[in-house]
UniProtKB/TrEMBL annotation:
Residues 9-22 have a biased composition (Low complexity). Residues 241-381 form the F5/8 type C domain. Gene3D superfamilies: Galactose-binding domain-like (2.60.120.260), LCCL-like domain (2.170.130.20), Spermadhesin, CUB domain (2.60.120.290). GO terms for cellular component: plasma membrane. This is DCBD1 protein. Disulfide bonds join 25-52. Keywords: Disulfide bond, Membrane, Phosphoprotein, Transmembrane, Transmembrane helix. Residues 158-234 form the LCCL domain. InterPro entries: CUB_dom, FA58C, Galactose-bd-like_sf, LCCL, LCCL_sf, Neuropilin_MCO_CoagFactor, Sperma_CUB_dom_sf. Residues 1-25 are annotated as: Disordered. The keyword Protein transport does not apply. It is a single-pass type I membrane protein.
Length: 381
């Protein structure tokens, strides 16, 4: 089953920003405007005798802002055994070396450079989580940064660097409820579909009264957890012009589907010899009984939704069929059309290749994926 969500229609791709190399590199996502990087195994103990070099480069005329999420390298004299060093060879400036007994003075470093080389080295050691850093540019102000847990005052607007999806930490809740206030804020923003993990971006949020129970969900490639009562909760809004009043804007309403069609469907013969068609019209999310299923031998099967008129589509929700057969779609790509003849593959915020969405892991739960940016289309396939 599937449904699109969006709103009635109202009237760029990016180059790779940097490079990383070395056997000490962990989670890394670098884009022209923001990114996140960590040492190998973070937040577990970083390995012995490794090195990593990241080269950060943002657009000329902007300056790099670096946030030290965590620098936990085993102490040694002058950080000789394990160290973090930031250098701009062109300007002749350097920051560090840093380790546990020589940590950065503040968590935020504002440079006057658009390029920076980040060097991490380790020798033999026994302890240390390693490092977690993020960066953005001076073009992205905002009231604060949020790489890990939000500060108690957080509200209205923060900036989330690209790559939050892969950092350590848990989230509790879902897009419709909001999130337990101890959730990793930027990770929750990706889960809620208000920013693309590939690019990061500005996030508008509010802290509202908590609820008794936060239900888990799988959305935008992330699992949230089922969580207990918290005093406050985080709710997100897709715009940054004003604080949100609700956790989901009106554009998250389910769109009506005028017609379903498919490349093929399964003509089942049940145990009693009775025929049953798993036709395209069975694909509406929430319909009783069995769903749509393609012909078992079919390759490159597709399901098409006709929305009746051009709409602004902000995402899609899928669910399997739990009736008698444990069927579900694990991954899928999306194409859209305004006229039913010319089709455009969805490439998401990166713009480089067709996006493959993570689908369902069982036949019972619903999985939500956001379109960032949205698509204007009558037909979604």
């Amino acid at each position: 089953g599937a449904t699109a969500r969006g709103e009635t229609e109202a009237g760029s791709s990016s180059a790779e920003s940097g490079l990383s190399a070395g056997d000490g590199c962990g989670h890394t996502l670098l884009t022209p405007h923001s990114g996140t990087l960590s040492s190998k195994n973070y937040p577990g103990t970083y390995p012995n005798h490794t090195a990593c070099r990241w080269h950060l480069s943002v657009p000329p005329g902007t300056s790099l802002l670096l946030t030290f999420g965590d620098v936990d390298l085993e102490p040694s004299e002058r950080c000789a055994h394990s160290s973090l060093l930031l250098a701009d060879p062109q300007a002749g400036t350097a920051y560090g070396p840093y380790c546990r007994n020589a940590s950065p003075a503040t968590p935020l470093l504002l440079t006057n450079s658009s390029t920076m080389t980040v060097l991490f080295n380790s020798t033999s050691h026994r302890s240390g989580r390693g490092l977690l850093l993020s960066y953005a540019t001076s073009q992205h102000p905002g009231r604060g940064w949020a790489l890990n847990h939000p500060p108690s005052w957080v509200c209205c607007s923060v900036y989330c660097p690209a790559g939050c999806k892969g950092i350590d930490g848990d989230i509790w809740g879902n897009p419709s409820q909001g999130y337990r206030d101890t959730s990793v804020l930027c990770k929750a923003a990706v889960h809620a579909g208000v920013i693309a993990d590939e690019l990061g971006g500005q996030v508008s949020l509010a802290r509202e009264k908590g609820i008794t129970l936060y239900e888990s969900a799988f959305a935008n490639g992330l699992h949230s957890k089922r969580g207990s009562l918290s005093e406050k909760r985080l709710t997100f809004h897709k715009g940054i012009s004003s604080p949100p009043a609700l956790s989901l804007p009106a554009c998250a309403d389910a769109l009506e589907v005028a017609a379903f069609t498919a490349s093929s469907w399964w003509h089942e013969v049940d145990a009693l010899g009775q025929p049953r068609a798993w036709g395209a019209e069975r694909a509406a999310l929430g319909s009783a009984g069995h769903s749509w299923a393609a012909e078992p031998s079919a390759e490159a099967a597709w399901l098409e939704l006709d929305l009746g008129s051009r709409r602004n589509v902000t995402g899609i929700v899928t669910k399997g069929s739990s009736e008698q057969h444990d069927y579900y779609v694990m991954s899928y790509s999306v194409s859209s059309s305004r006229d039913g003849r010319s089709w455009r593959p969805y490439r998401g915020s990166s713009g480089h290749e067709d996006k493959v969405f993570e689908g369902n892991t069982d036949s019972h739960g619903e999985v939500s994926n956001a379109f960032i940016p949205p698509v204007v289309a009558r037909y979604v396939r």
